[in-house]
Design brief:
heterodimer; A: alpha+beta; Rossmann fold; OB fold (Dihydrolipoamide Acetyltransferase, E2P); 6-stranded mixed sheet; 9 helices; 22 strands; B: 273 residues; mainly alpha; MetI-like fold; 13 helices; 74% helix
């Protein structure tokens, strides 16, 4: 049961080919207007491409190649869509919203409600069952929307920036929830957040100007970006390892002190994320307890805006040209990258 | 100008209030004048006379029937106009809205040449033994003709405001188009549909010109309340005024019911936490 797609829509300069394994989740990254939402609209049947073909296993979603003209309506495709807004039907309770998919598939009212109750419990929203959408917060509504999409038992789940409209407290909660429910499920998630790609996706595609410019395992794309967009995303420093009480310890034994988001548990795989602007460069080791100090060899110096970006040991630091001149930095030199623990965020990977 | 605490900035210059008051008075004053003219001691006998009650009953029955016709015909029309773009859509909308600006007498003449004995369809209907003109059916047709645009306009607006995002989501969840219409679209625009139906009912209740032209004025068959009022005005002004007041009361009750909650639109309000 592999999902295959190739589609061309000239009016939107869109030309994409894609395949997805049965339990694979891919993240689609890309600048605004690159065609990310077009991709989901074509797959779900809301938008018709000029030519192309899409199949899930034996099931043909559309086949507009050569002289064929096969087009399945959205409701028989099995591709549930979850958008930025929860779009819960305002006249139905949370439970009946979730029961909508099973009901449409022909389940009796009782059966559909049982299925709905199961999925609501699955997203920790069992207590919200009788509420109307108007009585839910943004995060709660989005959780119910996740349950509603899953209750429809889709072959392919389409998520269009599901975290974008949530506040900073609700987003990590939903991200953790999605990580749980997307395991062993086929999904395509559009996101602007590198963290979503890291946590939720097995694979990343970068879409620019309606074309896939880069594709591969998430970590690989971010570590060795080939496209400009991925490089921009990868502008953040990432260190992977295993989560500890204070932060994280890398496979090489480097200890990173940072602050946890509220979902990390010591012992699990994690990633430390910090921006290059938070990194200071010293010639000698600094001794100050809340600081991280990593000895690294400089590989590269390049202008970055009005700063100098120092690349060393897979990390980047942004410093002023004056500081760079004072320190006399040159490639090959060994320096210490120093980062305050408060500037490093530890997330589960 | 006294400002209540808690009220925000409105941006309305003071002289606007003066003109608005004049506008309000312009509508209110004639009603007051009419009420002042009512012969109160004779009011109850006047409005409960046999001809009055017959006319009122006929008006309520035909208006209810034409409201149902408006819903049956108007909902699909509004859906087609609001949702699927097709060639000639603007033209169709213009024609559907035409009865709004057409003098009702002209509408009546047009209906007569369609359903009358010598009319376009009337000739064939006559052969089938069906005669429409100058019957109660004709009253309902005339009222539907003039009231349909009210339902279409009000519902099309509601449909456009609601947008089709919910419908798209419902479809991806596996709902066939008829299910989407029944379980998502109609419930979302129910307030718009209700106010459209109420407006259609009110317009049907007041219909005069098209009814007189196409259905005539036969007591108990086609003489609705407005026709009865017009007739009484010639002979018994007191009866005309009393019946007018009844019509005003019914209209106010109907419109008041539909505009009780002006903010029951489809837009979902989200609780802030």
């Amino acid at each position: 049961m592999t999902f295959h797609l190739n589609a061309i829509l000239a009016a939107r300069n869109f030309d994409v080919s894609l395949r997805l394994g049965p339990a694979e989740t891919i993240a689609v990254l890309g600048p605004n207007g690159a065609g990310k939402s077009t991709l989901l609209a074509i797959i779900s049947g809301l938008l018709r491409p000029d030519t192309g073909k899409a199949t899930i296993g034996e099931k043909v979603l559309f086949d507009l190649t050569a002289d064929k003209n096969l087009w399945s309506a959205p409701h028989i495709r099995g591709t549930a869509l979850l958008a930025q807004e929860a779009l819960l039907f305002p006249h139905l309770s949370a439970l009946d919203n979730v029961a909508f998919g099973p009901r449409s598939a022909g389940a009796s009212r009782t059966e559909a409600r049982e299925t709905a109750a199961h999925w609501l419990a699955e997203v920790d929203a069992g207590s919200l069952a009788s509420r109307r959408p108007g009585q839910l917060s943004g995060g709660q509504a989005q959780r119910v929307a996740v349950a509603r999409a899953l209750a429809a038992d889709p072959d392919l789940l389409l998520l269009d920036e599901p975290m974008a409209a949530l506040d900073i407290h609700a987003a990590p909660l939903l991200r953790r929830l999605l990580k749980r429910v997307l395991a062993n499920r086929r999904a395509i998630i559009i996101t602007h957040d590198i963290l979503d790609a890291l946590m939720l996706a097995d694979r990343v595609i970068v879409l620019e100007d309606g074309r896939i410019t880069e594709e591969g395992p998430t970590r690989e794309v971010l570590e060795k970006p080939r496209s400009r967009f991925a490089a921009g995303l990868a502008g953040l420093n990432l260190m992977t390892g295993s989560v500890t009480e204070q932060g994280l310890v890398t496979a090489q034994g480097q200890i990173v002190a940072g602050h946890h988001d509220d979902t990390t548990v010591p012992g699990q795989d994690g990633v430390a994320v910090f921006p290059p602007s938070a990194v200071s460069v010293f010639l000698t080791e600094e001794h100050g307890s809340p600081r991280n100090s990593f000895p690294v060899a400089i590989t590269d110096l390049e202008p970055h805006g009005d700063q100098i970006r120092v690349r060393a040991g897979g990390l980047s630091a942004d410093i002023t040209p004056a500081a760079s001149a004072d320190l006399g930095l040159i490639p090959g030199m060994t320096v210490h990258f120093v980062i305050k623990a408060t500037a490093i965020a530890i997330h589960p990977a | 100008m006294n400002h209540r605490s808690g009220s925000g900035y409105t941006g309305i210059p003071p002289w606007i209030y003066a003109i608005a008051a004049a506008g309000g008075l312009f509508v209110l004053l004639p009603l007051v004048a009419m009420v002042a003219k009512v012969n109160w001691p004779q009011f109850v006998p006047l409005v409960t006379s046999e001809s009055s009650l017959t006319a009122l009953g006929l008006s309520l029955r035909t208006s209810a029937a034409s409201t149902v016709s408006c819903v049956v015909l108007g909902v699909p029309l509004a859906l087609v106009l609001a949702r699927s773009p097709f060639p000639g859509q603007r033209l169709l909308r213009a024609f559907v809205l035409l009865p709004l600006v057409l003098p009702p007498v002209v509408g009546g003449i047009a209906l007569l040449y369609t359903f009358g004995r010598q009319g376009l369809l009337g000739k064939n209907l006559e052969l089938a033994g069906i005669q429409i003109a100058f019957s109660t059916t004709a009253v309902v047709l005339a009222q539907t003709f003039v009231a349909l645009p009210f339902l279409v306009v009000s519902l099309e607006g509601a449909l456009r405001t609601a947008g089709n995002k919910y419908e798209a989501v419902a479809a991806t969840l596996g709902a066939r188009p008829s299910t989407v219409l029944r379980r998502v679209t109609i419930p979302l625009v129910l307030p718009g549909l209700a106010s459209g139906a109420v407006l259609s009912f009110a317009r049907s209740l007041g219909e005069f010109g098209a009814t007189l032209t196409f259905a005539g004025s036969l007591q108990g068959v086609t003489r609705t309340l407005p026709l009865e009022i017009y007739l009484q005005r010639e002979t018994d002004a007191d009866a005309a005024v009393a019946l007018s007041l009844v019509l005003v009361a019914v209209a106010v009750a109907v419109v008041g019911l539909s505009y009780r909650h002006p903010h029951t639109g489809a837009a979902p309000e989200r609780a802030l936490q």
